[in-house]
Specification:
13 helices, eight-stranded parallel β-barrel, TIM Barrel, alpha/beta
Length: about 350
Amino acid sequence: MYSFLKFILFKFKPEKAHHLTFFLLKIPGISIFASLLFQKKHTKLKRNVFGLEFKNPVGLAAGLDKDAIAFNQFGDLGFGFIEIGTVTPKAQPGNDQPRLFRLPENEALINRMGFNNKGVIAAANNLKKRKDKTLIIGGNIGKNKNTPIVDAVNDYIICFNELFDVVDYFVVNVSSPNTPNLRELQEKEPLKLLLNTLQILNNKKKKPKPILLKIAPDLTNSQLDDIIDIIKKTKLAGVVASNTTTTREGLTYSSKQIEDIGMGGLSGLPLKNKSTEVIKYLKQNSNNEFNIIGVGGIHSAADAIEKLNAGADLIQIYTGFIYHGPKLIKEINKELIKKN
């Protein structure tokens, strides 16, 4: 069924297809039909990670439901958790279009969206309409494009405070390649300042929430060692590994075709091995002191198992969902039930 829908959707430009998908998900009755068709419920799928109970370990990565418009409907498709965002304090349009490109030969995407979103208050208001209280929601937070790096911490504080009552965990995004200078925040000292500030705020709350850090797959082992050290010192709940890559490894398109697309982060199958290696490194060198959400190149149940075997406690899909639809969630969960 999804093969036919994908055939139709891929006739449209990527962003147009994105908006059409959201329109279809909102049609009355679609959610009920989808839940009957795709949801896989089993006690063997439950996971308790950073103090939260997930009904299954397959989540929707940030970037698809930026403004928390269709998180209820995505939950009906079988996801165990949804990560909304990346949200910023103020609404912003993102980068100029076109900014999203399909590479179907490699089941990949290149995007330079630039944190386009309606602002954190709009997302927070939408999240108040959560129907399924067992569906875990994560809030992925970032900075506005025009906010200078020296003032970036304030943007994260605003997003943290606005979302605190409506999400179950936070992800600090300092690894998108599409916001100027953002990745500078991955350097040791700025990152320590940012995370310490958020943890101080968090620990003042009556019931603190897990905070995770989303990292790029392009970090060196030395930089990953710094990340491990910072996570331990700031007592973060874990890491999301990983964001998109700025490399173009694994693509079969001509250099001219790639150059014509231009800048942006690459996701999908070509990212699979790179993100898995990051997960392995973090797991092997952290003494298992924090949790890992594995994301990048999961396009089959086997890919999901590979991420979990590498050390991920939970997984997320995005590009794989676009290419394979909700049946991918069901196939992963079916395989996990068999293995447990």
